[in-house]
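Collaborator request, handled under Task 6.
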Amino acid sequence: MITEKLFNCDAYETAFAAEVLECVENAAGYGIVLNKTLFYPEGGGQPADTGTLVFDSEIYNVTDVKETGGKIVHTVNAALPTGASVTGKIDWERRFSLMQQHTGEHIVSGIIKNKYKYDNVGFHIGTGDVTIDFNGVLAEDDLIYIEEQANKAVYENIRITTDYPPPDILAGLNYRSKISLTDGIRIVTVPGYDTCACCGTHCKATGEVGIIKILGSIKYKNGVRISLLCGVRALRDYASKNNQIYSISGLLSAKPEDVYSAVARLKNENGLLSKTLSESKNELYKLKCESVPEGSPHAVMFENGASNDDLRRFCLLLSERAATSAVFSENGDGTYKYAIGSLTRDVRALSKELCGRFGGKGGGQPALVSGTLDRGATRAALEDFIKCQN
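Structure tokens returned to the collaborator:
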């Protein structure tokens, strides 16, 4: 009961007729085995095709396809009778995009193998970008070179070949392969760039890839993982980023090519303003603390609109004037942020009691805790709570 793989004959066919050999209920719906199919099953780093099966005018959505022991199992949303004649149709837009990504990966992997002698040790076409893992390190200049050469291959519009060489021919081929293969090996060749054993679907010519854009790289194990986009995905990514650049350009009243320097200047100015604001707050908090006599048993302050960091800084200054200090900030919805501090006692138990009284949570060190309160707190109630502490 081995399924005939029509996608190996022509990756550009989108519709076919077949017979249902098996239907088994599974966790995702129903697993349908056909005598032949155009649906590519997930494998080799390439996701499965999706699409529809039609039987007796009813449409069954194919949401996943996997291969097990020669059987290609199509997951659909309802049962189909064994022996039924169905027509299938793949989602061509998805298929062609996957072909673009996979063909682009071959070109890039071939260039890296030929130039740097690194092996492709991992490949995955995600819903966003494509990732390829190599067992060697690539610098930024290397990535620029690889991208230029990959797109040169696209511009040349080279015819891509797929065949099953006989053993004597195969033995003389220098081809890429992640696993040891013996017979029935499918070889995909991009003349001048790559020869690889591969079961996936690919474009007929490199020009159909459209564009290859390397997005970046990260260290991965003892090598590097690069991410890229090809074809329609690359075009959409460029359109999205271009729109963002022009939107930012408008906000900053800067030319698109000057956005980086404008943002850097704005970040520097913001840093200076933040520093000035922080210094001003500290001066304000010191002035407010001077209203509290030194050696006071308790001190309570309210500073609405303060951040958690502001509350902690204020409370630490206040702790120099009073044995137990507390600063609260109302959030505008009846809840409060707080900081409690002391230079002479462990205030963690006090924070726990406060949260038990008014709800909320908090934590910190013996001399300073902070947190939130979420029910029944008022200024008067909070002042009374702190002032009643021994």
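The cover message to the collaborator said: "The domain at 96-239 is CATH 3.30.980.10 (Threonyl-tRNA Synthetase; Chain A, domain 2). The radius of gyration is 33 Å. Please let us know whether this matches your experimental observations."
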